[in-house]
Amino acid sequence: MEEKELIKIAQEKIDSFNSEELKRAGFLPLDGRYFPAIYYPPITMYPPTDQDEMFENFTYKTANQTSVYFHLPFCPRRCMYCHWVVSVGNSSEEIDFYLKNLEKETQIYKEKLGVKIMSPTSILIGGGTPSMLSPAQTERFLSFLAAEFDLSKCSQITCEVEPTTILGNEGMAKLKVMKKYGINRISLGVQSFDDGILKMTGRLHSSKDAIDAVKQIRLAGFESLSLDLIYGYPGSTLQNWIDTLKTAHSLDIDAYQLYRLRIVPHGAKTGAIKNVFDKSPEVFPSVKDIYIMKGLGMLISSQNEFKETSRRVFCKGPEHNSDYLQDHTDRLYNVLGFGISSWNNLQDRFFINTGKDLADYYSYVNNGKLPVARGKIKTVDDRRRWAICLSLKHHGVSKKMYEKITGTILDNYFGEKIKRLKNFGLLEEDDEMLKLTEKGQFFADEVVIQFYHPDYIPFPKSAYADRELNPYNN
Q1: Does residue 279 lie within any of the structural domains?
Q2: Which 3 state secondary structure label does DSSP give 339?
Q3: Does some domain include residue 339?
Q4: How many domains does one find in the chain?
Q5: pLDDT digit string (tens) for 225-278?
Q6: CATH code of the domain containing 94
Q7: Are 335 and 343 in contact (CB under 8 A)?
Q8: What are phi and psi of 421, to 5 degrees?
Q9: Alpha-carbon dihedral sign for residues 262, 344, 329, 429
Q10: pTM of the complete model
Q11: Taking the CA atoms of the chain, what radius of gyration do you get in angstroms?
């Protein structure tokens, strides 16, 4: 199908969602701002705390299912759009020192929880760029992981990689070590197949490097490969976004995640992209074009038989979806996070490790303490909102599971809110499930924010029209 026809079909679908009506109703911010509903509450809004407060009167229930995240912060360069804690220009000795402290942190965590070994349901190794480690460092880290965790019930281990770090003989050596230790899903950070956009955003790889990296990953024997792609960059157009999607589908891949460019900080650091937007918003695509880009992603995915298995994740089959994502959203499992700036959801506690700098992280660990810097004990209200927000965005809320987790019937607490969203065609329900409609899926983040407590809504009340769907209304 030609580009003009693709754009026409995507535009017609977007028009049917009537975003202007939703803006007038107070559902969408008046200025088009966007905030990704990833966690509840947003991790940027946790108050200061420490290990002692978070573990006071705490008993770890070993029967609870738990997924695990490791943060390896090292990168070849900080990208313009990155809101996470990364470290660049590190020597091999500095990386070794971080791995040593990561091992110490794991032991402190075990002592705190009173367990000898932990049995994760899934693992995500992220960053940063985990593939910045040398083959020997990769072996050290993964052998430690295999020794300290019971992986017999771990359904999936995903590792994030950057194209240039896995090319050549050394890159293949890293991939072979990953394969040896049971990593069975690779997430390749491509972001775009447009070389101009890659250069502008600070990526070191080229489009050719990304294509070669896909071939290298397959040559190493990995059977599940996902790409990360981002739309909405400064200077990006509908045409070069279509070209990126078509290039992705010309490759031997199993899945991809399609991200809208995130300008508002949602991690422990503020990306340079915010300063660019504040100074020159005109160089970014319009909100209308961003919606069309999202529509094109959905359309071209469908034409190539890639199904949206979780929001923004498109796969050939459900086995290529992220188990880590599903574990902490659909299944509401615990999450244990290791490393600087890692996020934790542990029973009735939310907390996040220090994101200040590596020296601060090391000072906690060397004093025998977990590097907890911010967090809170869940209130009854937190629990009720958390249990709807994470699941609703993806596969929907099981009413039975919601009642079991919160002790509350869903409709009794959010009945009026649900009714208003149904009236605007954003939600649907039956006796068992509350789900997003097709329209609701397109605006999934904004639907989820409707269920945030006013203290955690990312934009002020004045950012929305003062009508029935203003998220500050009960």
Answers
A1: yes
A2: coil
A3: no
A4: 2
A5: 999 999 999 989 999 999 999 999 999 999 999 999 999 887 778 889 999 999
A6: 3.80.30.20
A7: yes
A8: -70, -35
A9: negative
A10: 0.96
A11: 22
Does residue 326 contact residue 347 with C-beta atoms inside 8 Å? no
Nearest residue to 187 via CA among 323, 84, 317: 323
Side chain identity at 70, as an amino acid letter? Answer: F
194's tokens: 């447009």
Residue 248 token pair: 């992705």
CB 229 within 8 A of CB 298: no
| Distance separating alpha carbons of residues 380 and 334, to the nearest angstrom | 17
Which helix (H) or strand (E) segment holds residue 344: the answer is strand 343-346
**pLDDT tens digits for 402-420?**
999 999 999 999 999 999 9
The answer to whether 48 and 373 have CB atoms below 8 angstroms apart is: yes
User: Distances from the Cα of 297 to the Cαs of 5, 12, 244, 442, in angstroms?
Assistant: 14, 14, 10, 11
> Any residues with CB less than 8 A from the CB of 232 and at least 6 apart, and which?
260, 261, 284, 285, 290, 293
Contact 64, 334 (CB under 8 A): yes
Q: Find the Cα–Cα–Cα–Cα dihedral 36, 40, 44, 47, rounded to 10°.
A: 170
